[in-house]
Amino acid sequence: MLKNKDRYLSVILISPSIIAVLIFIYGFIGWSARVSLSNWKGLNPDYSWAGLKNYIALFSDPRFHIDVRNTLIFTGVFVVGSMVLGFLTAVMLDQGLKGEGIFRSIFLFPMAISYIVTGVIWRWLMNPAAGTRMSGLNLLFSSLHLDFLVNKWYTTPTWGMAAIAMTAIWQMSGYTMALYLAGLRAIPHELREAAQIDGASEIQIYRHIILPLLTPVSLSALIILGHTSLKVFDLIIAVSGKQLPLDVPAIYMWQTTFDGLFYGRGAAISILLLISVAVLIIPYIRYTLKEEAKQ
Amino acid sequence: MIKKLSLKKNWLYIPLIALAIFYLLPMYVLLVTGFKSFAEIDLKTMWTLPQGIAFDNYIEAYAKLSPSLFNSFKMVIPAALISSMLGSLNGFILAKWKFRGADIIFPFILFGMFIPYQSIIIPLVQFMNAAGLTGLPGLAMAHIIYGIPITTLTFRNYYASLPQELLEAAKIDGADMLGIYRHILLPISIPSFVVVLIWQFTSAWNDFLFAVILTNNTEWPITVALNNMAGSQIISWNVQMAGSLLAALPTLLVYIFLGRYFLRGLLAGSLKG
After folding, report:
1. CATH number at residue B224
2. Measured at the alpha carbon of residue A177, what is the angle toward residues B15 and B254, in degrees to the nearest 5?
3. Domain count, chain B
């Protein structure tokens, strides 16, 4: 009897959260999808059926092409940069050096700061002004006689996105380091010792033993970083405002919806974003829960 | 042998220190700029140390940003508290008091953690306006609801790691579900509460998208106010730098004093608990 009563109680207690998730996540996604199939443009909602018109318009929209290119550049630089830097710092910190804790704290602290703060600071560090108005990192490089490093940062044509990605690496590589460090600490010491006794060099041990064992960590890092970069928004707004050369889907969506009142197209962009994130995340959730059930 | 090994590895300090400089460079500029007097401010001398300690920039930035700092606190504290309590209750049920279908529901809750919020923002604005939930209460509510996935996950993973015998013994003693939750699980959940509170505090404090869309200029939280300050031509860069430090300070202090818990929240965000 008691058991049954408790079973009902558990359903009752969790239902507000489940209902909230159902409405505010799945209901709203459905609602957005419906808006994306409508002609809604203007202050008043208009749900007249437009079919796939908004999506088709996006595929031939030059601005959306720029967005896709920018997202690819950003994702490439950001994901590869964060993973390489995160892995290397984790390996270095795993050597039992003195002061490890201090370095770890320094590498991780940007995670506590908002993208807006990061963006505002880096916007001044990456000031592209030249000649007598030179400042920020360019000024530093120039006074250290490293003039070949002076560049136009986020105002560089085509590759300006890479400069934004660098600030994102500054912010997120510590996170990747933390993931790898947790993974490294979980590898039993005997494995390395056995390989050492067999005469394997340090580099061989990392390449043939440690790196393969860290595959699940690399996968997590890849997916977390990858889906973050698809959503990048605040950071770009804070560095450069809304400039077309640094446009991404999230900014296009925001501008076309809330500045341009073109809700139908804005919703279509948001649904495309959602699909691209879901393609990464759904298999990841399934894989993680399956692994968990095995244990 | 050990000594030889550590001597061999000392060269690692070179790349480590170089990287530390990369991470700390923005903080260096932030701090030296903040403590310069207005007379010393010049983009040409951005990298030099201040001649004395002045607070001009902080006073000016605080005068401009203090209303939005308070707005952020007003919204973030209730949001963090309520979403932690919800997460704890949900986590308990999903880990230790499963009903039929619980394992099917869980991945659907998890997915909510990763969605781009652009895909729900149009309905959210429509809904909040229709419900009259605009401004800070609406923003706090958004953080609570969209925080359910991560808070539930963190608590579920923690409760799932506790032995089932703990509950069985209490059941034999006649405790019911709520009794077990209140008297056995809640008292040992403090570390998880710290992790989740910090996580929710940090992400709500740092959020920009919900804030910029759900609040107007009298209720702007700090991220929106700072971004607008940085976008204006009137306010000079040194005041922006001081403002950035003010905006970052609460979460930085949490990180400095409770870093270990912060890290655990971070790892939970990758589903790895």
Report:
1. 1.10.3720.10
2. 105
3. 1
Distance from CA of B129 to the nearest CA of A (A): 13
Please report whether residue A140 resides in a domain: yes
Statement: residue B174 has pLDDT above 50: yes
Residues 6+ apart with CB under 8 A from A176: A82, A83, A85, A86, A87, A90, A221, A225
Residue B19: list chain A partners with CB under 8 A: 85, 89, 103, 107
The chain A residue lying nearest B48, using CA atoms, is A140
Compute, in degrees rounded to 10, the torsion defined by CA atoms A278, A288, B157, B142.
0
Please give the residue range of the domain that contains residue A194. Answer: 37-294
Averaged pLDDT, A209-234: 93
Which residues of chain A have a CB within 8 Å of the CB of B22?
170
CATH number at residue A134: 1.10.3720.10
Chain A: closest CA distance from residue B226 (Å): 8
Residue at A52 is within a domain: yes
- Residue B34 lies inside a defined structural domain of this protein: yes
Residue B157: closest C-alpha in chain A: A292
pLDDT by residue (tens digit) across B56-75?
A: 999 999 999 999 999 999 99
- For residues A90-97, give the mean pLDDT: 92
Looking at the structure of chain A, the number of domains it has is: 1
Residue B37 Cα, gap to closest chain A Cα (Å): 18
Residue B102 lies in a domain: yes
Q: Using an 8 Å CB-CB cutoff, list chain A residues near B118.
A: 231, 233, 250, 253-254, 269-270, 273-274
Alpha-carbon Rg for chain B in angstroms: 23
In a domain, A101, yes or no: yes
Backbone angles phi, psi at B208, to 5 degrees: -120, -45
Q: What is the pLDDT of residue B7?
A: 56
Q: Does the interface ipTM go beyond 0.85? A: yes
